Amino acid sequence: MTRSFADRHIGPDAGALEHILAAVGVGSLEDLAGRAVPASILDQSAGNGLDALPPALSEHEALNELAALAHSNTVATSMIGLGYYDTLTPPVLVRNLLENPAWYTAYTPYQPEISQGRLEALLNFQTMVSDLTGMAVANASMLDEATAAAEAMTLLRRANRASKSPRLLVDTDLFPQTRTVLYTRAEPLGIEIVEADLSGGVLPEGEFFGVLVQVPGASGRIVDWAPVFAAAHERGALVAAGADLLAMTLITSPGEQGADVCFGTTQRFGVPLGFGGPHAGYLAVRDAHARQLPGRLVGVSVDADGDRAYRLALQTREQHIRREKATSNICTAQVLLAIVAAMYASYHGADGLRAIARRVHRHAEQLATGLGESVVHERFFDTVLVQVPGGAEAVVAKAKGRGINLRLVDADHVAVACDEATTDEHVAIVLDSFGADGVPAATELPSIETRTSQYLTHPAFTRYHTETAMLRYLRQLSDKDIALDRSMIPLGSCTMKLNATAEMEPITWPGFSRLHPYAPIEDVPGMLRVIEDLQGWLSAITGYDRVSLQPNAGSQGEYAGLLAIRRYHLDRGDTHRDTCLIPSSAHGTNAASAAMAGLRVEVVKCRENGDVDLDDLRAKIADHADRLACIMITYPSTHGVYEQEVAELCALVHDAGGQVYVDGANLNALVGLARPGRFGGDVSHLNLHKTFCIPHGGGGPGVGPVAVREHLAKYLPGNPLEAGSHAVSAAEHGSASILPITWAYIRMMGADGLRRATLTAIASANYIARRLDPHFPVLYTGENGMVAHECILDLREITRRTGVTVDDVAKRLADYGFHAPTMSFPVAGTLMVEPTESENLEEIDAFIDAMIAIKAEIDQVASGVWPVDDNPLRGAPHTAASLVGDWPHPYTRETAVYPRGLSSARAKVWPSVRRIDGAYGDRNLLCSCPPLEAYGE
Ligand SMILES: *Cc1c(COP(=O)(O)O)cnc(C)c1O
Description:
The protein is an alpha/beta fold. The chain is globular, with a radius of gyration of 27 Å. The termini are far apart. The site of pyridoxal-5'-phosphate (PLP) has 15 residues, from helix 19. One of its GO terms (biological process) is glycine decarboxylation via glycine cleavage system. The glycine cleavage system is composed of four proteins: P, T, L and H. Keywords: Oxidoreductase, Pyridoxal phosphate.
């Protein structure tokens, strides 16, 4: 029998599966379904919605279909601009970074000892952003420019404690999509946006907590904002400035002009347009506001041997700690794309970037000179706004006929944006489309180059200008990390499954990657087909009626879904419904998203067995009856269990007039088995980067579609170019260019493959639970003693008895070549393990053997053979360097690095640093590349 894609995606073969099922004590996968999943929600294999999916294709057939879709798109020369510019990704970065599983299959670097490669790359990103913007500290990426602007807005409000004003003053020359997202985010928080043309340097009357501008503006105009910044500060307002990083190589940065915050995108640094994404947004602040930064921040610290080491600083996973008081809900960000942008800067260096910027500007100057009087602004970088009374449409049509897309601003204006890919020929065609006579030989416009300060002087940006050096740098960094190309990553709640090559290939095809998000609709039929197919397939899988692919992470899907609920109640006149019930076990983003959507969070207790306490739920519903907006549950729960009473729980909330939000992060336990849209959910978000094979990229990109039942459909986020559309991202379809990954996955798995994948994931999780329970007790199980697709190992009693912590076990796993499971979520002092369907039995057994061997080591500590503060667990991870020289420890070097339980069949992983001292780094906060001298040490 020929093997299908599903046979290659799913790890255990028939023989292995038999072994797994026998250990779990069930006869077949369908038997398992009946035992694990509550009968009240379980779909039979026919009528589970998957009959709506097309039959499975092989890898080559699916790639052929996708190639046809890509070819049906028109890859025009894009001169539309508006924050999206064509860019020439250096091939060395395409093949060795963007298309390299060592980079794209990694997880967010919460285990810093085996993540030094991507942490260093992210530190380069932060350094690049802070240098170019003139700010002290930049974070490790935002989701896009518009959401970064929204985060800047809320940061200004938090940081400006002196101001009681709810008003934000916004310049009118902002990208329209940025403006729309600002309005979406401002309204539920009671922030009042006041728009005015600030280019004259005069602020409208009254108090503002902040002022927000952009340079260059949407019209291309460069304004000297220094007087506005000064006036704002005098008025007690803080200032945020959007800044184009390529322009910053030539003009004075907002930081140098006094801005408090900078935001923007790094797309044009080598990240393909991708019909809107994914790209890395950025956010940077003055020193004083460093602790207000949302998202991840990489910092420098030291390891146990006193050597320099990187790790996430300060607010890492702050949502889990601060919940609704978190600075933001952002969790998955845009790590992979941030690293591409940083490497682009490393490859070109300051001089190279400046040369690119000058070429871009020279083309814009040629256009402006050729168009003469009709050019609206005197000072511009890359975008020229042209007045053509009554003739704008004709000009755009003429250029379109010759393969170039321009921006139609209105009936009388056209904007033309030059970029790295613009050629002299493009300039000639554009001039001709305007009816100008030929390309001017010389331009005599005044220089825009006002920047005098240096940037990108660190070795990270001077050492890798040749392809050989860059190739080796990328390899050297990725060799420090554990990604899925080295071992299983058993992170509960994160679903680190296979990202098949056939799924990944299409994303760098020009037919998908070189489309501007605001390209004319007739250019993108293939892209829209992928989008529509996916919307239909995901609706069928989830049982909902409508799906929006706009949110670019799970957190954004949560936010969009909660906004829909809020607007639904408001439209019905239920203005008092502002309370969101959230079980205590929920992911931290849930509470953070609710707060952003203007909802009050009330926590519902969990019972001893981990289930939502329905008695407490009844009490909370009674307490908040007329204020109840919704409940937000995760199903199966973050405790890894299918709660029996989920249908009843949903009914209780519905009866009280509330809506039910089902967090779909755990959909890998439901696909083909049960549909949240049918068992009581009104809205869910999915994580395509968990259940549907988009790789985690080291902490992003992600796609977090929001799915709703019909009554909420009209509240889904709209087109960001339309004011008031409640868009949550800068592009209508979010990170569209990675949607072919999910499309290919569903297309190749087919209905049977998807159901089999889910059941195999459940079988493997139960196998691990059964085998590890005698060593590390499994904390929660469902009615039949079964877990769902993940299980929580309880180490609290072990820690109490022996002093060995979850940290010790997590770090020790690196010596065995494994990435740690999820630590202390959702329960402190536990590890949550999720194998997914993609891991084969050998790998699962190797992990289990490592865990059992670690338990034996813990027993040695317990029996006093090794002291609690000096044993292989506390000493972990062990580097090669730690073996040479004195060895004062009571365990051998061999035990340190080649312990029993480490399969001889596995390639040895050598962590590059010892255990990292996080607190030291937080006390001595350093979030950009250490200065040059430090490299001599
Ligand atoms: C991953 C996860 C989220 C957040 O999703 P992001 O894509 O990281 O923003 C929310 N809820 C649960 C239960 C999750 O596991």
